[in-house]
């Protein structure tokens, strides 16, 4: 299903290719995606595709990187708010991302335990950043921070698992998920 | 580092090969494990290795399957206990498994998001079974079960993430982890 070639600048072309790729990776296993197909859908030559992304791994890494960065941007905390509101706002932004970027959520999820260390590291970086933000917002220090770090890391895994489940069960109201997630964090941190 | 060949019966030989494999998979990425090396360490011919496990995927699937089954066995609930004690006992059994089978924990973790659907399904089956056990023990039914199922699935992801973290930070006391996990479940379920 080739679409007519359009003149796009470098950045637009890259964005277009990543947009196509993320949809393919969301619906199939990593093995079943061929970047040649991405070129075909985009209506560009294979040579141009390889020019942007020499290998499938490079392509997938670029997708995971873009989505992780986007996720960090939209969930960036507003330090002027009280900590509970910062957390709730970050969670709402994450839910919003999940609702509007289901492909990105699945791609990041696949990236989490990719056999490729470089891809895992992209996701690890995002998780570590989210963890640090929460620990800093709460002001955990010293010994207390060690245990709180474990609890927060676990909670991030909780939120991700709940949201992946949500993609499969979209009838669950967002407000219910929000309550569950906030209550769970309070439990994890002993608040 | 070939060890002398020993006469083992079929089941013993299979167990030996899996035991060797799990150590290799725990320390390296999937790509960097060669089943020929497993044969060499076991002191058996490649032909015999292929006889037991035709491909690396079959071999890895057998490891994940054995460990998942073992984990389900050791965490099987005692329905005669009150629900809180069943959960706590299951959690203690899981911690015990993590402490004594770190290779198995890592192998299952790698299996969770393996590109191979068949391997993911082995782990999914274990997670679904743990989820069902907890929901049944608590007696959640109907509409309440739908939301509780999401919370419990998230909690299982929490416990797994916390335990993976624990492997990297073994100084954290088990009792602290236990408290965090139980408090988190109470939060997730709104108890």
Write down the secondary-structure element order of chain A: HHHHHHHHH
> Can you tell me the number of structural domains of chain A?
2
**If interface size is counted as residues with C-beta under 8 Å from the partner's C-beta, which chains form the largest one?**
A-B, 41 and 41 residues
Number of helices, counting only DSSP H or I runs of 4 residues or more of chain A: 9
Looking at this structure, what is the CATH superfamily of the largest domain in chain A? Tetracycline Repressor, domain 2
Beta-strand percentage of chain A? Answer: under 5%
N-to-C CA distance of chain A: 55 Å
What overall geometry of chain A do the principal axes of the alpha carbons give? Answer: elongated
CATH architecture group name of the largest domain in chain A: Orthogonal Bundle
Helix content of chain A: over 70%
State the oligomer: homodimer
CATH structural fold name of the largest domain in chain A: Tetracycline Repressor, domain 2
Number of strands of chain A: 0
What does this structure look like?
The structure is a homodimer of 191-residue chains. Chain A is mostly helical and 191 residues long. Chain A folds into 2 domains: 10-54, Homeodomain-like (Arc Repressor Mutant, subunit A, Orthogonal Bundle), CATH 1.10.10.60; 60-189, Tetracycline Repressor, domain 2. Chain A is built from 9 helices and no strands. Chain A has helices at residues 10-27, 35-42, 46-52, 56-74, 83-100, 102-112, 117-138, 142-168, 174-189. In chain A, helix 1 crosses helix 6, helix 5 packs across helix 9 (174-189) and helix 8 (142-168) runs antiparallel to helix 9 (174-189). The longest helix of chain A has 27 residues, at 142-168. The interface between A and B is large, with 41 and 41 residues.
């Amino acid at each position: 299903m080739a679409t007519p070639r359009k003149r796009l600048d470098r950045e637009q072309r890259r964005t277009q290719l990543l947009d196509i790729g993320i949809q393919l990776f969301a619906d199939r296993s990593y093995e079943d995606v061929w970047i040649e197909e991405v070129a075909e859908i985009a209506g560009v030559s294979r040579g141009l595709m390889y020019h942007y992304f020499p290998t499938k791994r490079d392509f997938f890494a670029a997708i995971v990187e873009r989505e992780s960065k986007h996720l960090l941007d939209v969930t960036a905390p507003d330090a002027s708010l009280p900590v509970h509101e910062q957390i709730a706002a970050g969670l709402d932004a994450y839910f919003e991302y999940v609702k509007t970027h289901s492909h990105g959520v699945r791609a990041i999820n696949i990236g989490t335990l990719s056999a490729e260390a470089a891809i895992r590291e992209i996701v690890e970086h995002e998780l570590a950043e989210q963890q640090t933000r929460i620990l800093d917002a709460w002001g955990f220090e010293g010994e207390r921070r060690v245990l709180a770090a474990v609890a927060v890391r676990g909670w991030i895994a909780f939120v991700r698992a709940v949201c992946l489940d949500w993609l499969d069960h979209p009838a669950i109201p967002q407000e219910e998920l929000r309550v569950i997630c906030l209550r769970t964090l309070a439990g994890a941190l002993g608040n």
